[in-house]
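Recall the central idea of this unit: under ordinary conditions, the amino acid sequence of a chain determines the structure it adopts. In this exercise we apply that idea directly, starting from the sequence alone.
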Amino acid sequence: MAERDRLHQDRLNVECDLADALLRLGHGEDLVAELAARATKNPLNERVTGQYMEALYRAGRAADALEHYRHVRTRLVEELGTDPSPPLQELQQQILTMDPRLAGLRGTRQAAKPQQLPAAPQQFTGRNRELAALTAAVDAASERDTTVVIVAVAGTAGVGKTALALHWAHQVRGQYPDGQLYLNLRGYDPEEPLSPGQALDRFLRALGVSGDQIPQEVDERATRFRTEVSGRRMLIVLDNAGSVDQIRPLLPGTGTCLVLITSRDSLSGLVAVNGAHRLDLDLLPLTDAIALLSQLIGPRAEAEPDAVVALVGQCSRLPLALRVAAERANTHPTIPLADLVAELTDYQRRLDRLEIDGDGHATVHAVFSWSYQRLPAGVRRTFRLFALHPGTDIDPHAVAALARITVETARQHLETLTRAHLTHSAGPNRYGVHDLLRAYATHQAIVEDTEHERQEAVNRLLDHFVHTAAAAVTLVYRNDYHLERQRSGSSEPAISTQVFDNRTLATAWLDNEHANLVAVAADAARHGRSGHVIALSTTLRSHLFTTSRIADARTLHTLALALARETGDHSGQIHALHGLGFVHYNSGAYELSLDSFGQALTIARMASDRHGERVALNGLGHVHYICAQYELALARFNQTIIVARDIGHRSGELHALRLLGHIHCIQGRLEPALACFNQALTIARDVDDYSGELHALRGLGNVRHLQGRYGQAIECYRQSLAIARDTNNVNGQFEAILGLGRTYLATGQARQALAEQQTALSIVHGVGQLADQARAHDGLAHAHHALSHNDEARHHWDQALNIIIHLGLNNVEDLHINDLRDHLSNHQADRR
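Accordingly, the structure predicted from this sequence is:
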């Protein structure tokens, strides 16, 4: 049944094509009988209706033609709830006014079949997905045979929109036997864009309409154009369109035509109102970019593959830039490609090198400028300042800080830039630019903005990041030691500083901005902005530690320490050394950790900095604790508690209390341990210190475990784990899961214990915390041993022992090297 219907439809289409051709040749009266029968069979087919009306008119039966129109219109309204299409309404008007163009006398002009497509681009590579998407869009839209098919290819300057459109147009031109029309609308050229009237004049002349027959008014020209192409299968390419208003008058009214548009604008109105299908063209994928450049350069590319990859990166995978770079290489065939790479290394001069003299269309800088100049002045300024952000992407709040505008205005500017494809979406509410556009924006900032204006913009951006990071860290971790630096004096929060409604949003901001925070700190360090670098180091210390971002913490705190020493900033030195101390601590470099904390303590006491003294004492206590130097650890934590109470630092007091609790626990003093953890938990909940609360709960879980109160222990661990996950505290998650695994093993649930210990190991394996890896391996070994997986147990005890030996320790918290050796020795005896 479906196949039969398809064949009937194909036959009808062919019959209609023939009728169109005969009508264009001047036939009319001789077609009336045939078309009357066809109209009876297809009463709602508007193409058939129009052909029948035109034949009736030429037969001198205008009244019958108008009566048939009224009859069809009534059925369309009653059965489909719609009026006749615009072309059919126009035909009715032509009959009413006895338009001479309907006379159709034989021997008049023959219908022209323009063939205006420019040549297809040579060395076209890749874009298979996009070509398939174009074909699929046209196939889907063609099923609605009464609606003009519109496809728009949108993308940034130089991305290859015209090349893609022409390549595909040549592939499908055979499907449009009545010809192809092409116009460069010059929407983004240095010349004036073509007006709709100018474009219609050119199209009508190409269709054979003489100059004296072309109407003067744009609307009348549009009507004549729709009449000329009505019923004809034509491909119409509108290249380099500037706006929807430039395009709409050029749209046919018939579903037999395909309109293919390219533009740097997103043409959202054309999609929303006219049902256009938009294909957003991105930069070339890396493999396609390499293939294109290699094809353009030829055999030399095979000899220098590394240089080809480097060139692709320097050209940002932008096809125009790749073609210009290839031409530069081919112009100097004896010069190694590596020399061209070196020439393009200078970020600021790269755009000057990516040009071909005398050809504005082959100059990357020029094609960017045509897009830039069309923007409103405020949006141009935002685009320029965007480039001063050293990170990978940006959100509207940061843009608002850079440009000193409201967040809502920043959003509007970013949307305008994205529609113009001068920025791209980098995620929800985030925006980015590729490197060549960034270089262009930087150039414009240097040309159009003063040095003072640029420096002020960067300062505002850094203030935004410092204050927003402080707001996020305060909400997520609920402790205030990162604010000690700010108390000594800093700029007022910027208007763009974000306010977070809950910890989830604050945590998300810290995760989303992590790479940017590191990037802006490094950039600030290069330009000697010590205050901002030290503030970021101090503010982010807790976050970097709890999320185990060790490499970034090392970079940030090292930069801050160097600048603090250079400027004589004692407080900055103390906090940077504290951060580095925990970097070394997490990496198992305990001597270096002790040295960092020791330096911090010396500086704090010399400067009478009680906050700094507490921070340094706390760090020293941690190292002594992990190294099982419990008496030294007890002394340091007791000193920490005294200082914390003196200065009213309750979070500092609670963290020292919970570590004292762990030491009492290890040494078998369970009641003092219980008292310490309960005190710590009370303080944590009083001051909303989530980190302190999860650690206090974990400590209580350890005590209940040792007391044999396993149900209570599991409940404490679960509460601790929930907080750790909620605050993205990696260390807290590890400790809670490790405790759960041990408790499940103690209650005979070996398989559940095994699963928990595997999770614990996976957490710390990715962040390089060797001491904790040893503890997780020990937990896995015990679980495997309980399940009689003896080889697996031996493997994990071996791993734990090797780590402790590597660290140069005898103990890691409650894990003793002699216990590991005993386990391995007993296992070997069992095997014998």
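Residues 286-345 form one domain.
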